[in-house]
Specification:
alpha+beta, 2 domains, two-stranded antiparallel sheet, 4 helices, elongated
Length: 166
């Protein structure tokens, strides 16, 4: 009788150890990232940080700073070309990654958008986005958003930055 109890206790202990070891290895496989996922996470974080750095709603002498998201959007005309100061700042912050910059807004009950910097991303590209709110009075006189009655005031923009490794 005693031998059977010890045998049963040994079997139960080995099953318990087997469950613990299986759980340990199973959870470590789920938690540990693959190398490609790690670089994606780094690029996604870089995209979010870049947009956060370039987001500055402060004004100097009544105008937004040129090298900010607000400064770039407020100076856009119908050609949708960003100012050189903004592009320089964007290049410096995102280096060495390549990027695509897109702008979206609500117009007439639908969402419109355009590529501000129209580079072709690779399949491994990741992105980040940020919302920017600008009053119509702060937009340049030749802005396609200023005198458009289909666009609300203030204008809410979504800026998407897509990054990839060259």
């Amino acid at each position: 009788m005693k031998a059977q109890a010890f045998t049963l206790e040994g079997v139960m202990a080995s099953l318990l150890l087997l469950i613990v070891v299986y759980t340990f290895f199973q959870s470590s496989l789920v938690i540990s990232p693959m190398w490609s996922e790690l670089s994606d996470a780094q690029l996604r974080l870089l995209a979010q940080d870049t947009l956060k750095i370039l987001d500055n709603p402060d004004k100097v002498d009544g105008n937004y700073i040129n090298a900010t998201l607000q400064g770039m959007i407020s100076q856009l005309n119908s050609s949708f070309e960003p100012n050189p100061e903004f592009l320089y700042a964007l290049d410096r912050v995102t280096f060495p990654a390549d990027y695509r910059l897109e702008l979206y807004w609500v117009e007439g009950g639908g969402i419109n958008g355009t590529a501000i910097v129209d580079n072709d991303p690779t399949p491994e590209a990741v992105g980040g986005s940020r919302f920017v709110v600008i009053e119509k009075d702060d937009l340049s006189s030749d802005s396609p958003f200023k005198n458009n009655p289909e666009i609300s005031d203030p204008v809410v923009f979504e800026v998407r930055l897509i990054l990839w490794r060259p």
